[in-house]
Each structure stands twice: as C-alpha cells, then as structure tokens.
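Lecture notes, continued. The same structure-token format from the folding unit now serves as the input rather than the output. Read the line below as a description of shape only.
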C-alpha cells in the first residue's frame, strides 16, 4: 500500500449566499479571507502533507466560518487570523485539537 500524497485535508467553507439569507454564509462572515490566509500561512510554515482546500456549503452556516479537517473529521469555527494561526500550529503541526474552536453537534465546544 502506498503512502497518501496528503495526510490531512482542510476544507474551508467559502460558500456565499445573498446578504439577507436567514442562514447567512461563511463567505459573508469572512471565510474567503480566512481560507486565503490559511493557505498562505501553511505554505510559509512548510507544513508537510497538508492540503488547504476551498469547499462549498458544509451545512453549518449559522456557525461559520467553518473548517473541517480530514481524515479525523474535526470541525472548527474560525473568526480571525489568530484562530487560523492556532489551528495551524496546534492541530496541523502538533496534532492537538484546539478545543476552544472545536465544533460539536450542538455548536462550539468551549470545554
């Protein structure tokens, strides 16, 4: 069996809905800007085996902007560049879940 080309895939929701849509959208809450920043920072940090991807609607619109990291299936909400930096450093580089940003079935799991 061969080694996968990427061992982690980060899907960042960049879905956009009309401004007055009742569910809102990750793009409307800064998801595109945060995904772009994450992609640049991941390259700068030279994190091996990680791919930062854009995703359409991940169906957690009210909690966005959201990201999900596979194969673990860990979901995060990220609101700032600092949140992105923490996900990159803790989860992608050190393998530790960022509990303060982690999403559960009911929303954000703040410990």
């Amino acid at each position: 069996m061969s080694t996968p080309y990427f061992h982690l895939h980060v899907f960042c929701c960049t879905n956009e809905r009309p401004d007055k849509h009742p569910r809102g959208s990750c793009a409307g809450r800064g998801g595109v800007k945060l995904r772009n920043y994450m992609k640049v920072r991941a390259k700068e940090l030279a994190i091996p085996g990680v791919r930062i991807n854009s995703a359409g609607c991940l169906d957690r619109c009210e909690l966005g902007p959201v990201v999900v990291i596979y194969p673990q299936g860990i979901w995060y909400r990220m609101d700032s560049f600092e949140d992105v930096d923490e996900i990159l450093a803790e989860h992608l580089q050190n393998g530790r879940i960022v509990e303060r940003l982690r999403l559960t079935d009911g929303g954000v799991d703040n410990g």
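Point for the exam: The first helix runs from residue 31 to 44.
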